[in-house]
Every structure is written in structure tokens, then in C-alpha cells.
């Protein structure tokens, strides 16, 4: 780490530059209202929908935001995702032996990525990234090389993939969504002082510089209200991860406000960050979130129901009005006599005010708002599975049609995952020695290890594409409904019906089929 053996001028200049860029990025996010929008969206998804509202009304929550959002996320990620590598330069390799070597290397890479996709629970990570995008507008993946990871062989180190919140991503050109073309990318985070000092010490930083790493109170620049809440006495500081390119090579720098912890020429070709928008926003590197479109309607639904509840609380029971000059005190005790003074008709001294009634159509209008809100977001009754299964074919057609509106989100996600896999390949080919093994699954599904020529593939034009498997629309309930119709109209007998039932819908299926078969043989005999 020769950087720290030089004079302090270069260090202070790069440190000052990184934090100036960070402050400029925060100011941009404030100007476009990102921080408050993300906090509000997260609250509404979580169910804290009366935050900051001072009222004597009840506080009901009919959380259609979460219902619709979970449906949208599940619909986008309803198929298993697979990644395949290709080499754009392969057709131009003239030597047959070299072409075969590259082809074999790509095959090993494809098998390894399929194994990695399962072991790193990427399906779960993608689901969380989609939820982030639905709430904040963007889902962000960050890859880093963990030098301490072990997988059973003598070589250590492996790729780790984390999610980054949009509030922690900063770029040089805020009008461009192309991360790889940016002059720099900055990721911010919070770390314990002890861990940051330990990392700086291991990187060879002078102890006088390490002593400058001190706690700060910058807690409110992340998603959600709970980001600003920490354990009492916890000493943390904000740090920056700054990526830039020098001679087409990624340079990584980690720093706090007062100390550069490390600066490394990584050898990578690609920034280890990729992301996708839910909805694009022209000339802005931030996307638009669907939850933002739901907040106003959700507020109206809650407040409308709150007023209806308050009305029913105040007017649900009749009230007695009496003349105190003739009836000194009224009692609601069962069977208790009530004394009246003076003569005349007692009924003239007492009257009962009936219960109040809601305006006709008030609750119907609220329900119309709910249904129209869901319909505008594509979360219709058929799509959500709430429609009665009277016409299975029509329901399936409507469900398929509702998926069309989400196709653009899938395209954004698959492009992002293709870039993510390309970053993985870049890291493997940069950091793995020639005799490093990669874990793969063979055709029989057994785990084994293979190797490849990393240096050779490092110089190839590797490209990855992500695709989704077939989305199965025929659920167990749909299948049973279809079988019921076939049995009802005589197209199936009982044995055929039982045999075709989906797994898990009937216990002891074989025993039942055997008894039906024996009964049939007895009858025929």
C-alpha cells in the first residue's frame, strides 16, 4: 500500500474530493425529494399510515399498499431465473483449438453460475431487490471479493453479493442511468469504529491517521425510519466506497471523513455495481416507485373509513332527551322506576332520538376507490386470485393479460441480472489462480469441482443474459376445478379423477385407488 508512504497532499486531495462528491449527491437527492419520498413509501408499506397526522378520528389501516406491492413483486419474479454466458468474440477466433478451449471454459462458467445461483439464494435476493424497487424506485446489487471465504480447497476468497439502498448510491452524472459509463460511483454505509480502525490498521494506515476515525451522528440518510435508531452507546461512522476507472481498470477507495482506509487498483474491467428501475424517469438515474402512486389513495381510504367509524361510534345508539324540570334524574338501569314531577302526560317530558344513518352509497364509494386503485395497478380480483372460479379459462386469460403491464419491469430486472453475472465472471477471472476449482453440478445433480483457463477468459468479450423459466399458471386449485368439471360431465371416472389429482391434495391415494380397483373386480366377478 505505497499510497500511505507518500506525502499527505495526495491523500487529503482525494479524501476531500470523495466527500465533496458525496455531499453534492446528497443535496441532489434532497432537491428531488428522494429521502422523504422513500421514508413515506416505506411507512405505508409497513403499515404506519397515520404518521404525523393529528386527529381525534380512529386510526384504521386497510393496507392495500402492501397487498398490491406484494402481488407486483411476486408477479415479476414468478418464474425461476437462469443465467447463460456467451463470448461475443468467439466467431472471430480462427484457431480451432483455442475456440474449443474458450467454449469449454464458458461451459464450466455456466455450470458454476447455476450452482452459485442456488447456493447464494439469489431468488431471495432478487425478491428483496424488487421490493426495494417497488418502494424506492430502484433495486441495487453490489458485488465484492471476500478474501477470507473458504470452500474446502486451499485457495481462499469468494464473491459476495449484497443489496444497496438507493439512498446510498451516488454517481457523477445524475442524468444517466448507465453505471459503467460513470466517471465515479460512490456507495455510502455505516460501520462500527472498532471495525473501521481494524481494517485501516490491516491496510497499513499510520496510527495517527487511524486515530482520526471518530463516531458521527449521520444516521438519517438511509431508507426507513428505523435507520436513525441504534443501540445506545454504539459508536459508528459513515464511510464511503468510491469506484473510479484509470486506464480502463477499476480503482477502489474506502474512507471516512478524516481518513482514507484503503485504495486499491482492483484489476476489474467493470464497476461491481448494477441496478434496475421499476419505472424509468427521463434524465434521472433514480427510478419511480409504484408505491408512490398509491399513497394518496391509501390516505383517502383510511380517512374515509375513520370518519365512518367515528360516525357509528357517535350515533349507533339512540339517545334519550328529557325535561329536567319534570324528571330530575334519568336512569338506564333495567327495571328501575323513574320519578316524574307534576301532572300531565309523561310522554311530553321524554323523547328518544333515533340512531344516525350514513349517507346512501358512502361505503360503496370507498369500495369503488379500493377496486379502482387495484385495477389501475393491475391487481384485479382475477390477478390476485380472489375471483370465484366459475370460468377457469376466462380467469387464466385475465391473469395472463394482467402480466403484460409488468413486462417492462422484468426486462429491467433481467438486464440487471445479466450485468450482475458479467461482473461475477470479471471477478472470477481476475482473482482466481489457474488451479483454482469452481463448484458445479453435473448432469446427475451431483456436486463436483472443475477448473478453467481464467486468464484466457479474462481477455474474451464475455456477456451474460438472464432469462426466466416457464411460469406455471395452473395451480393446484385450478387443476382440481378442471378435474371436477370433467368428472361432473362424465369425461372421467372416479379412479381417473383420483389419479390425476395434484400431489398433496389427497392422502393415501394409492390405497384408495387399490380399493376402487378391488371393488370393480368384485362387481365384474
Features:
525 residues, alpha+beta, three-stranded antiparallel sheet, 43% helix, 17% strand
What would you say this structure looks like, in words?
The protein is an alpha+beta fold and 525 residues long. It has a domain at 481-524. It contains 16 helices and 14 strands. A five-stranded antiparallel sheet has the order 4-5-6-7-8. The chain has a three-stranded antiparallel sheet with strand order 3-2-9. Helix 3 (64-76) packs across helix 5 (122-136). It is flat. The relative contact order is 0.14.
Topology:
Elements: H1 8-31, H2 34-46, H3 64-76, E1 81-87, H4 96-119, H5 122-136, E2 138-146, E3 158-164, E4 169-171, E5 184-192, H6 193-202, H7 207-210, E6 236-246, E7 249-255, E8 260-265, E9 273-277, H8 290-315, E10 319-322, E11 350-353, H9 362-376, H10 381-384, H11 392-403, H12 407-431, E12 438-441, E13 447-450, H13 454-458, E14 462-468, H14 476-488, H15 494-500, H16 509-524
Antiparallel strand pairs: 1-14, 2-3, 2-9, 4-5, 5-6, 6-7, 7-8, 10-11, 12-13
Give the overall shape, derived from the CA principal axes.
flat
Class computed from helices, strands and strand pairing = alpha+beta
Considering DSSP H and I runs of 4 or more, what fraction of the residues is helical? Answer: 40-55%
Largest sheet: 5 strands, antiparallel
For the record, give the distance between the C-alpha atoms at the N and C termini, rounded to a whole number. Answer: 91 Å
Q: What is the C-alpha radius of gyration, as a whole number of Å? A: 33 Å
pLDDT under 50 segments (min length 5)?
A: 1-10
Beta-strand fraction estimate: 15-25%
Return the string of H and E elements. Answer: HHHEHHEEEEHHEEEEHEEHHHHEEHEHHH
Number of helices: 16
Topology, number of strands: 14
Mean pLDDT: 84
Spatial order of strands in the largest sheet: 4-5-6-7-8
Amino acid at each position: 500500500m505505497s499510497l500511505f508512504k507518500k506525502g499527505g497532499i495526495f491523500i487529503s486531495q482525494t479524501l476531500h474530493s470523495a466527500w465533496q462528491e458525496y455531499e453534492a449527491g446528497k443535496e441532489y437527492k434532497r432537491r428531488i425529494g428522494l429521502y422523504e419520498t422513500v421514508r413515506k413509501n416505506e411507512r405505508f408499506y409497513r403499515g404506519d399510515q397515520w404518521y404525523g397526522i393529528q386527529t381525534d378520528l380512529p386510526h384504521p389501516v386497510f393496507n392495500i399498499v402492501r397487498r398490491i406491492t406484494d402481488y407486483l413483486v411476486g408477479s415479476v419474479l414468478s418464474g425461476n431465473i437462469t443465467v447463460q454466458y456467451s463470448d461475443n468474440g468467439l466467431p472471430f477466433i480462427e484457431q480451432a483449438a483455442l475456440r474449443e478451449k474458450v467454449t469449454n471454459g464458458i461451459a464450466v462458467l455456466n455450470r458454476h453460475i447455476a450452482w452459485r445461483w442456488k447456493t447464494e439464494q439469489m431468488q431471495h435476493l432478487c425478491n428483496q431487490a424488487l421490493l426495494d424497487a417497488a418502494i424506492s424506485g430502484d433495486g441495487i446489487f453490489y458485488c465484492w471479493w471476500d478474501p477470507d471465504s473458504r470452500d474446502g480447497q486451499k485457495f481462499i476468497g469468494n464473491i459476495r453479493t449484497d443489496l444497496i439502498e438507493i439512498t446510498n448510491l451516488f454517481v457523477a452524472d445524475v442524468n444517466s442511468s448507465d453505471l459503467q459509463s460513470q466517471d465515479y460511483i460512490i456507495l455510502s454505509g455505516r460501520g462500527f469504529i472498532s471495525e473501521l480502525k481494524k481494517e485501516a490498521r490491516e491496510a497499513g494506515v499510520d496510527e495517527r491517521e487511524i486515530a482520526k476515525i471518530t463516531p458521527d451522528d449521520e444516521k438519517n440518510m438511509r431508507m426507513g425510519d428505523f435507520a436513525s435508531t441504534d443501540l445506545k452507546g454504539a459508536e459508528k461512522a459513515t464511510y464511503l466506497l468510491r469506484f473510479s476507472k484509470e486506464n480502463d481498470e477499476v480503482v477502489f477507495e474506502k474512507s471516512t471523513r478524516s481518513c482514507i482506509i484503503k485504495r486499491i487498483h482492483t484489476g476489474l474491467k467493470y464497476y461491481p455495481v448494477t441496478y434496475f428501475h421499476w419505472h424509468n424517469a427521463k434524465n434521472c438515474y433514480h427510478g419511480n416507485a409504484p408505491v408512490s402512486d398509491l399513497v394518496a389513495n391509501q390516505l383517502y381510504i383510511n380517512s374515509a373509513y375513520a370518519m365512518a367509524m367515528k360516525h357509528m361510534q357517535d350515533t349507533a345508539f339512540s339517545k334519550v332527551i328529557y325535561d329536567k324540570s319534570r324528571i330530575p334524574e334519568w336512569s338506564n338501569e333495567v327495571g328501575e322506576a323513574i320519578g316524574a314531577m307534576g301532572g300531565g302526560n309523561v310522554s311530553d317530558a321524554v323523547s328518544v332520538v333515533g340512531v344516525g344513518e350514513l349517507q346512501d352509497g358512502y361505503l360503496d364509494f370507498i369500495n369503488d376507490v379500493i377496486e379502482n386503485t387495484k385495477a389501475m395497478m393491475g391487481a384485479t380480483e382475477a390477478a390476485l386470485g380472489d375471483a370465484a372460479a366459475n370460468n377457469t379459462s376466462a380467469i387464466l386469460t385475465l391473469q395472463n393479460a394482467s402480466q403484460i403491464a409488468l413486462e417492462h419491469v422484468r426486462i429491467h430486472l433481467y438486464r440487471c441480472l445479466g450485468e450482475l453475472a458479467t461482473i461475477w465472471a470479471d471477478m472470477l477471472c481476475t482473482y482466481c489462480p489457474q488451479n483454482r476449482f469452481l463448484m458445479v453440478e453435473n448432469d446427475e445433480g451431483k456436486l463436483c469441482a472443475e477448473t478453467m483457463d481464467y486468464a484466457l477468459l479474462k481477455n474474451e468479450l464475455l456477456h451474460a443474459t438472464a432469462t426466466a423459466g416457464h411460469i406455471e399458471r395452473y395451480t393446484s386449485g385450478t387443476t382440481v376445478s378442471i378435474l371436477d368439471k370433467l368428472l361432473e360431465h362424465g369425461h372421467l371416472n372416479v379412479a381417473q379423477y383420483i389419479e390425476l389429482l395434484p400431489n398433496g391434495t389427497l392422502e393415501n391415494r394409492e390405497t384408495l385407488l387399490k380399493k376402487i380397483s378391488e371393488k370393480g373386480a368384485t362387481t365384474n366377478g
